[in-house]
Inverse folding.
């Protein structure tokens, strides 16, 4: 813990920590939190991160496997003590272009992006509510604000997370548990590297992780970045459907 001050968590668990936003956040927490448990499927990447770190500990995991999530959570609590920060960053993104509607793609999106979160909440929420302490951040997306072209599989999972967080927040808050929803715009990660369309205000991943950490420290309910883009996306929610669809046709689809 040299130079940078300690953070207010003893045991953090970052799910989806092998790359992108989760990995960048793990590096920011390293050495400033007693233990940072890092999970994802890529065991080799997690081990490499652990080897180069002060306080990162690898717990490989597929979030779609509810039993494995339960075992992993018990393992972390046994070795590192009660988890007081959970960050849910695991996610998957597939382009959908009509007329092709492949149910398998939609199911994978829902299984990872939505049920993966539910599987982790099922473990973390009861203990936190019992202890009347703890913090959880769910990484959703501005793609959950309104339907976007190509995002017919991804967007609904993120809209569902926004609704899930809104639904749970009051009862968790009443028991001293902080629940945040994180709605990023475009961030430069392996997930967006495959995109062949313009990504306005694409943010470097280290800047995005800093903004995420600042939001967590503030215990903000909604954490968004980059704000110029996310606020514009939020304003689109206020438009009548006909105007919204005209904007999408004119500026996004552009024949
Ligand atoms: N990048 C953006 O512009 C952007 C914008 C808005 C929201 N988001 C959201 O931010 C979060 C992080 O995305 P990212 O951009 O950092 O992408 P990323 O680099 O692809 O990271 C995704 C992470 O999720 C993990 N993951 C995927 N499937 C998993 C599974 N079944 N079980 C456990 N872990 C799994 C991946 O690791 P393994 O492959 O090793 O399992 C990886 O660590 C996602 O929820 C994404 O939807 C991203």
């Amino acid at each position: 813990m040299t130079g940078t001050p300690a953070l207010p968590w003893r045991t953090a668990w970052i799910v989806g920590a092998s790359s992108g936003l989760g990995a960048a956040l793990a590096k920011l927490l390293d050495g400033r939190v007693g233990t940072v448990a890092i999970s994802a499927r890529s065991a080799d990447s997690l081990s490499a991160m652990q080897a180069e770190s002060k306080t990162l500990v690898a717990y490989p995991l597929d979030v779609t496997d509810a039993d494995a999530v339960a075992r992993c959570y018990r393992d972390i609590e046994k070795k590192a003590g009660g988890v007081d920060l959970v960050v849910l960053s695991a996610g998957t993104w597939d382009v959908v272009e009509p007329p092709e509607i492949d149910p398998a793609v939609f199911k994978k999106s829902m299984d990872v992006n939505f049920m993966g979160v539910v599987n982790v909440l099922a473990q973390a929420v009861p203990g936190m509510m019992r202890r009347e302490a703890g913090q959880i951040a769910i990484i959703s997306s501005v793609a959950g604000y309104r339907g976007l072209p190509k995002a017919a599989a991804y967007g609904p999972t993120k809209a569902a997370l926004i609704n899930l967080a809104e639904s749970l927040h009051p009862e968790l808050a009443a028991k001293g548990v902080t629940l945040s929803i994180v709605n990023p715009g475009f961030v430069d990660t392996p997930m967006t590297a495959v995109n062949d369309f313009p990504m306005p205000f694409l943010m470097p991943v280290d800047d995005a992780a800093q903004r995420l950490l600042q939001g967590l420290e503030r215990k903000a309910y909604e954490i968004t970045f980059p704000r110029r883009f996310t606020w514009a996306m939020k304003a689109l929610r206020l438009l009548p459907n006909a105007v919204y669809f005209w904007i999408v046709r004119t500026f996004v689809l552009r024949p």
